[in-house]
Amino acid sequence: MNKTQIASDTISDTDTRSLFHEQIRQGIPAILPEPKTYDTAINHAPKRKEILSPDEKKLALRNALRYFPADQHAILAKEFLAELETYGRIYMYRFRPDYKIFARPISEYPGKCEQAKAIMLMIQNNLDYAVAQHPHELITYGGNGAVFQNWAQYLLVMKYLSEMTEEQTLVMYSGHPMGLFPSHAEAPRVVVTNGMVIPNYSKPDDWEKFNALGVSQYGQMTAGSYMYIGPQGIVHGTTITVLNGGRKISKNGEGLAGKLFVTSGLGGMSGAQPKAGNIAGCITVCAEVNPKAVQTRHSQGWVDEVLTDLDKLTVRVQQAKAQKETVSIAYQGNIVDVWEKFDTENIYIDLGSDQTSLHNPWAGGYYPVGISLEEANTMMADKPELFKEKIQETLRRHAAAINKHTAKGTYFFDYGNAFLLEASRAGADVFAPNKIDFKYSSYVQDIMGPMCFDYGFGPFRWVCASGKPEDLAKTDAIACAVLEEMSKTAPVEIQQQMQDNIQWIKGAQENKLVVGSQARILYADAEGRINIARAFNEAIEKGEIGYIILGRDHHDVSGTDSPYRETSNIYDGSRFTADMAIQNVIGDSFRGATWVSIHNGGGVGWGEVINGGFGMVLDGTKAASRRLESMLFWDVNNGIARRSWARNDEAIFAIKRAMETQPLLKVTIPTIVDDAILDF
C-alpha cells in the first residue's frame, strides 16, 4: 500500500467517524428519513396480540407522535397505525439509524463525559445484530427484553449522552429519556427504571397494554440495563449449574463424561446451554423451534451439530453415549417430541431442564407441540385464546414426559424460566404431595443458592472499553492471578467455588466466548470482586489497559427478589418481598455506581420479580478506587445479610466473615430456634 492509499484510507475513516458523531448528536432528525424496508433476513419479534380498544389505539398514536413536530404528524400517524396493526407495537422503523450498531471503542463516541461514552458503548452492544435477539424491535433477549420501546427513544438517549457532563444525570422511564437533570460528579450518570407499575396492574395483559400504549416496557434483566454481554453472560452460570448438577448425581466423582443433558431454547440466554454443556464435558441435546436461532448459534460455534429428524437424533445420542463424547446437538423442533421420543426409545437422560422463555408464554416465549412456527405465530396474534389452550396442553404433555424420565432416575431442575410455575397453572402434574411445593427444585434452591449465592458468589462481569482483544487477555490474566492468590488462604467452605472459577477463567480464551463487546464474566464473592476491580484500576492507572466497565447480571446474590428463582431458597416467608432489590439499587446509587437500574419482570415474568443492576466505569483514578470499594462491598453483602437473616447457614457463615474483615459492618444475626420448642 502506498502513502496516497494510506492517506485516503485515513481520511475515509475520519469522515466516517465524523458522520457517526453528527448522526448521534442530531438525535431525532429534523427532516423525515426515508421509510425503511422490512428486512426479512433479520430475526424479528412475533406480532403482539391485539389488545387495545379503538380509543386506546388513538392514545398510543398520540403518545408516539409527541416525539415529533406537528408538521410530520399526518405522515407518521398513518405509518405508526400501520405498525401497530401489523406488529402490535409502534417501533418507528423509519428512524432506525443507517450506521452499523455495535460496541465501538470508547474513543469513537462523541461526548463531554467518559462515563456517558461508556454507556453509549454498552447500549450499542445490546443492539448489535450479533448480540440482540430482535435488533430491529430493540429487543435484546428473552422474546421481550427491550433496551427501548422505539427508535425515537434510542436516538434521543444517544443525543443526551453525547451532551452530558459530570454535573448531570439522565433519567430513564421504561425506555423513555425524561431528560438530563442537574446533578453532581458522585451521582449516577443514568438512573433506569423499567416496568415499575402499580402492583395491582402487573399481570401479563397489563404489560401487553402498557407496552402497546408506549408507556412501559419489559427490560428483562440486562437488556434494559445496558449490561448484556451476549450469551457468554449465562454460559458461565450455566456451566457452574451443570457441573454442580453433575456432582449431585455423581457416583464416586466420575464426572459428566458420557452423561446426557436434555433441555430447550437457543435464544439470547438459553443459547448458552450447549456451550456450557461442552465446557462441563457432557452430551447436550437442546431443542429449539426457531430455525434462525438454531442457525445463529450453530454459525457462532455455540452448538456443534444440528439435526431435524428424531430418529437420527436418537441414533446420534446413542453413539455419543457409547463413545462418551463431549458434544452439543441442536434439535430443530419441539422439546416435547424429544422427551417423548427418548422415553419410547428408552434413552436415559441424566440431567434435564428447560430454558424457553416461559416468563413470556403467550407472546413467543414457548411454542405448542404439533404446530409449525408460522402457524403458531399466526394463531398467537389472531386467536390468542386458542394459542393459550395449545400452550397449556403442551405444558401438560411436557411435564408428563419429564415425569416418566424422572421415575427412571433423571435429575430434573427448573431453570428459573417459570416452567414449573406455568406448568402448574396449566394443570400439569408438577406438585409435590403437599400440593404446595413443586416436585422439582429450582436450580437456585438446589444448586446456585446454597452453593454460590449464600456465600456471596455471583456474576461479576467486565467490558474492555478499548475494544481490544489484548486488553481482555490482560484482564483475564489479572483476574486469574487474583483468584489464585486468594485461594491460598480461602476457607475450605468456598474452595470449590474458587477452583471452578480459576478453571473457567483459564479456559475463557480457548472457548471463544466473546460475542459483541470484549467482555468477560466469572463468579466471585465481595472480596474477589473488590480485589479484581482494584487490580484492574491499578493496571489502568499504569497505562497497561484501557478503561474497564464493571457490571453484573441481575441474577445475583443481592440484586433480585424472585420467589421462584433467585430467592427461592429463602424459607422465612419473605421470598415474596422486594426490600432487598430496592435497597440494593438505592445503596449502589450513592456508593459510586455510574448507572443503576431497577426492573419489574426480568427473567421469570411481569409481576413475578423485582430486579436491579448497575454499571461502573473504572478509569484508573483514586475516585474510582474509592467507589469500587464502597459499592461492590454493599452490592454483595446486602444480599448476604438478608439471606443470613432467613437462617441460611452458608449466609450466616459468609456475613460473619464479612464482619471480621470490615469493622464498620454490624449485622443482626438470627437466633436459631430448636424445633422441639415449637412441638406443641
**Topology-level CATH name of the largest domain:** Urocanase fold
Gross geometry: globular
Low-confidence stretches: 1-11
Quaternary form: single chain
> What share of the residues does DSSP label as strand, in percent?
5-15%
Coarse structural class: alpha/beta
**Rg, alpha carbons:** 25 Å
Task: Write down the overall mean pLDDT.
Answer: 93
CATH superfamily of the largest domain: Urocanase superfamily
User: What top-tier CATH class of the largest domain fits best?
Assistant: Alpha Beta
Please give the largest β-sheet.
9 strands, mixed
Number of helices: 21
Please count the beta strands (DSSP E, at least 2 residues each): 17
Helix content: 40-55%
Query: How many distinct folded domains?
Result: 3
Summarize the structure.
With 680 residues, the protein is an alpha/beta fold. Helices cover 43% and strands 12% of the residues.
Give an overview of the whole structure:
With 680 residues, this protein is an alpha/beta fold. The chain folds into three domains: 14-187, no CATH class; 256-441, Urocanase like domains (Rossmann fold, 3-Layer(aba) Sandwich), CATH 3.40.50.10730; 456-677, 3-Layer(aba) Sandwich (Urocanase fold). The chain is built from 21 helices and 17 strands. Strands 3, 4, 5, 12, 13, 14, 15, 16 and 17 form a nine-stranded mixed sheet that branches. Strands 8-9-7-6-10-11 form a six-stranded parallel sheet. A two-stranded antiparallel ribbon has the order 1-2. A hairpin with a 2-residue loop joins strand 3 (168-173) and strand 4. Helix 16 (469-487) packs across helix 18 (526-541). The longest helix has 24 residues, at 3-26.
